[in-house]
Specification:
With 193 residues, this protein is mainly alpha-helical. It is built from six helices and no strands.
Amino acid sequence: MNLFRNFTIRDWLIFSGNVCMLITSLLYIAWWASAFYPASECAPPVSSFLLLLTCLTGIAAVILFICGIRIPLSSVQMVPTRQILFSTVILYIVLLCISIFLFHRPVTSELFIMMLWAAGELCALSILYSAGRFGIKSVIVLKLLIFGATAAGYICYLNYYLLEGIRAFIDGLIPLALDGAVVAVFLILHVVM
């Protein structure tokens, strides 16, 4: 097996963005545990520091994705980035309205973060497929994983304020763990393809 076979600058930028995204997921889980685990005795400065690191690695991931995605392709992109981003904005607005008006769920940043994550992963996947890095089977698997994690995350998002204690903590942890697992699969496939 030849790992990192023929990686281009685009590959390295997107791969590095996903490494940052995986670190972001792990830091987000650590922050969530420090701030919301019912028996947590974590000092507020430690929890705040974990949240700061989470934000910084998340921003780094977005910047690396943007840099990798903006490198021109020599072929036509499977699904144009603008189309993915536009569709994600529309979906975000629809889900936000459903959350507010149908489920009366308070608005928090998690839905926006969830949609930003899904859009970034789908844009990266589209670019890598169009560049010949991924085959159709890998694309289907990753799309299903991204859509599944996003759907599960949205369900958890709707349920969070209906739960208390450890059940609320676990509900909030599920989307973070799922997103991290999807990114780990994406990274593995990117290395071996």
